[in-house]
Amino acid sequence: MELQDLRINYGKGAIPDGKSPGNPMMWFGDWLAEALSASLHEANAMVLSTVSEKGSPSSRVVLLKAFEERGFLFFSNYESLKGYQITLNPAGSLLFFWPELERQVRIEGKITKADADVSDDYFYSRPLESRVSAAVSPQSRIVSSRTQLEQIHQDFLDTYPEGTFKRPDNWGGYWLSPDLFEFWQGRRNRLHDRIQYQLVERKWEWNRLAP
Fold it and tell me: Which of 58, 140, 154, 192 registers the highest number of CB atoms within 10 A of its CB?
């Protein structure tokens, strides 16, 4: 089958006129809760996009670990490619895609580091070997082989078998504070529903967009 022939006629949901909540964060919470209750695989996975100093975009999948009115929380190595790009340009975007529900949510905003206590709380809640990986991985750097990575990991684990080591200073959380949301619901005949919210003078204004 040719790629151009691959086609799905969506129709599992709808966003009727006048049914858009005033607070997009609450609406996002409702949609995420539905994705979780449907036991979707990695329902908290999101595509994070950042921008280089030359304006080139870079995207990867990360996991959402919390959300509240201030924004969306994820964790990373601060010296990774995304950490470097965030330092240069704190603008970023998130994309959640739940194909089983025929939904996606796009979010744009400013990224800032989380407080140390937030990073500590999450770091020490992780399994030991995950903490070791965070401590030893030179994320985004060139390594000679998989064997080298595994040896570094094992050597560190042998040194701290009880996990008595501190969170590395170069690892922690980020908040993306949103100023734009777009909720997308697949509809028949490609007449999809798109509802966009923009933060204007600390108030959310929303509009329906053409698909």
Answer: 192
167 catalytic residue (yes or no)? no
Rounded-to-integer distance, Cα 95 and Cα 211, Å = 17
Out of 141, 188, 190, 208, which one is annotated catalytic?
190
Give CA separation, 121 vs 46, 77, 78, in Å.
22, 16, 17
Structure token digits, residue 41 = 């695989």
Task: Output the six-digit token pair for 17.
Answer: 């006129």
Which homologous superfamily is 3-120+171-209 in?
A: Electron Transport, Fmn-binding Protein; Chain A (2.30.110.10)
Cα-trace Rg, the chain: 20
DSSP 8-state symbol, 114: P
Asked whether residue 22 carries a pLDDT value surpassing 90, the answer given is no
What pLDDT does 197 receive? 97
Mean pLDDT, the chain, rounded, equals 95
Contact indicator for 182, 95 with CB cutoff of 8 Å: no
Concatenated DSSP letters of 157-198: HHH-TT---PPPTTEEEEEEEEEEEEEEE--GGG--EEEEEE
Task: Give the tens place of pLDDT for each residue, 93-127.
Answer: 999 999 999 999 999 999 999 999 999 999 999 99
